[in-house]
Amino acid sequence: MVSKKLIAALGVLSSLFLTACTGGGAGNAPASGAGGTYNIYASYPVTGALATTAKTVITGLEAAVEDINTSGGFGGRQAKLTIVDDQLDPAKAVTLLQQQIDKAKPDLVLAGVTSNIALALLPLTTRNEILTMTLGQSSKISDPANFPFAFSPTVPNVQDAKAVTTQLLSQGIKKVGMLTANDANGTDTATAYAAAFKAAGIEVVADSYAAADIDMTAPLERLSADDPDGLVMQAFGPAAGYILTGITKLGLGIPVVAGISLSAGNNLGTISSPADWKNLTISAYPINTAKRDESGRLFKSLMAHLKSSGAKLTNGMNQVADGFDMLQIARRGVDQAGAVDAASVSKALENPRPLDGTAPYVRWGTQTFSPESHFLGVSAKDAYVFVKPGPYVDGVIQSIG
Fold first, then answer.
1. 104: Cβ–Cβ under 8 A, 6 or more apart, which residues?
2. Terminus of the chain with fewer CB atoms < 10 Å: N or C?
3. What is the number of other CB atoms lying within 10 angstroms of the CB of residue 56?
4. Domain residues of the chain, as ranges?
5. What does the pLDDT look like over 104-138, one tens digit per residue?
6. 4-156+293-379 adopts what CATH topology?
7. How far apart are CA 57 and CA 43, in angstroms?
8. What is residue 293's three-state secondary structure?
9. How would you classify the pairing of strands 15-19 and 78-85?
10. What is the pLDDT of residue 401?
11. What class, spelled out in words, does domain 158-289+384-397 have in CATH?
């Protein structure tokens, strides 16, 4: 549930300006032009199929703006957040961002909740030298040579593939049917999965679906015809439910393992029900489970904002934490660089100074970027746990069975 600040504006305008109250704070290196505004432009689907995901991320952004502005800002600059509704349409996202740049170039662009949107916007933000954060996981995003100002606080699909491979081996699955989306992230995931499975000696039969598909029985029937020992699915949004109900409809009694995309949102309850989850094991981020670390200052700040704003989490905690952490990452880069230009901040993020032991982010603690990778350096072992599915309560999976 999005916070009260957004309710009145969503659906009325395609942009929303949020400026938290000013506040002092010590310990930040003054950025060039300190005392002005740090302009953040966020392109998210606040209407449509992934609106719940977008609004959850936005809740995290709001919490970060509040936390940062009351503790010194971005090198002395107060954050101003502008949210536009890209409706999951890459062409619309590009048009809206170009209109914003024509008026005033943002200091930071948050490029969507999917790889399709991110990959559409990155040429534009690169050409205009704008620091960019995205939740997209496609390996094409982490390309410092072509997109030097783009960073993702997520884990690349190759690590997801390693984790799923380990899980398949633990279940004794030697031949797997693989069903993935045919969009940017699904295609990248399929490539990573297939390579990891084959390297581990697991035979792979693959099929795909379109994001708009609502009947998944055809690809599932094709996979079933090859008599696999188990099924691996990659899905985000309503597609996850359509796949699971399709499995039930066809009576497939084989083990099903879901990659991280499924648990990253409230995808189980969107279409399917517990009756469809009997043979399912899901990959999950630790922050979405009882294993999450609640001791840090930033976690407590985020939770305090959720309480004060009245926001209710119907998705995983990772999504609100993603929004929160993206701004904390950008702030760390600005503070270290002593500047807000994309080149200086990007260089700082690639070469972060050692910390005093305080975790700088809610989700991943001290993991950092590097000149070679603009994904956070998190291993498969640290990034994922496998649990039985269940509904989310306050951002935590309540496993059934």
1. 39
2. C
3. 29
4. 4-156+293-379, 158-289+384-397
5. 999 999 999 888 999 999 999 999 999 999 988 88
6. Rossmann fold (3.40.50)
7. 11
8. coil
9. antiparallel
10. 65
11. alpha beta
